Amino acid sequence: MSTEPLSPETRALLSQISTATLTSQLMARGLRNTFMQKVHRLTTGGPSMVGEAFTLRYIPAREDIDVSAVFEDRNHPQRKAVETIPQGHVLVIDCRQDIRAAGAGSILVTRTMMRGAAGVVTDGGLRDSPTIEALDYPVYYGGRAAPTNLTRHHAVDINVPIGCGDVPVYPGDIIVGDREGVVVIPRHLADEVARQGTEQTLMEDFVTERVLAGQSIFGLYPPNAETVAAFEAWKKGR
Predict the structure, then answer these.
(1) Residue 127 contacts by C-beta under 8 Å, 6 or more apart in sequence?
(2) Residues 6+ apart with CB under 8 A from 215
(3) pLDDT band (50, 70, 90) for residue 3
(4) Coil, strand or helix: which one is 44?
(5) I need a labelling partner for 26 at 20 to 30 A (CA). Which of 10, 183, 184, 228 fits?
(6) Longest dimension (CA), the chain
């Protein structure tokens, strides 16, 4: 399994491929559970999101432990995650799909942006959501939630395997987000998926062009030999 950093070339390719295409590429490799459920884009500005996963895990809160004073500890996992996430990584927060409290708020999300992170994803709530919504930065969430994380969540670990939106996420997995949602790509497949996903995107652009010209989908989608030949000629003429 590859542990090499994501190359600029692969990062650039993945930023131009839809999550729909990426899930198709992963399904062809036997991976069906890769698209996060009930996780949606909050921000309207900013590019598509591509980066290695840096994870934060919550378990249910307990009243005698989860009090405001815990935030004074510089090793509190939530605070530590925000202050140690590497550049180009995506902070992925496991809230167990509980949106009754916020996994983070605008100050922490903004701090990850200023540290050069590639985005933030949680299957829980985010507070200060109108402020976050205005950021020129990829942020995905399960819902709006004013209450602080301490009311529902206890932060226990950073950079460990988690679940987010019912999808397993391992540190270093590649997280890609567009306007449709978020997909998780095992790191060792990312380079191959990026190359073949780019080719699939070109083919689908060609198919769409032909459909708009009035052509039937039969023999076009999926393509027969004649369509494949026409596609190759189309690529050369671009």
Answers:
(1) 102, 104, 105, 106, 144, 145, 146, 147, 148
(2) none
(3) low
(4) coil
(5) 228
(6) 69
pLDDT in tens, 26-45: 999 999 999 999 999 999 99
CB 41 within 8 A of CB 139: yes
Let me know: does 2 contact 89? Beta carbons within 8 Å. no
Q: Is the pTM of this model over 0.85?
A: yes
Kindly report the number of other CB atoms within 10 A of residue 95's CB atom. Answer: 29
Query: Tens digit of pLDDT for each residue in 133-165?
Result: 999 999 999 999 999 999 999 999 999 999 999
Token pair belonging to 193: 């998926």
Q: Over 80: is that where the pLDDT of 81 sits?
A: yes
How many C-beta atoms lie closer than 10 Å to residue 182's C-beta? 28
Reading the block at residue 217, the tokens are: 């989908």
139's tokens: 């942020």
Q: How far apart are CA 130 and CA 137, in angstroms?
A: 13
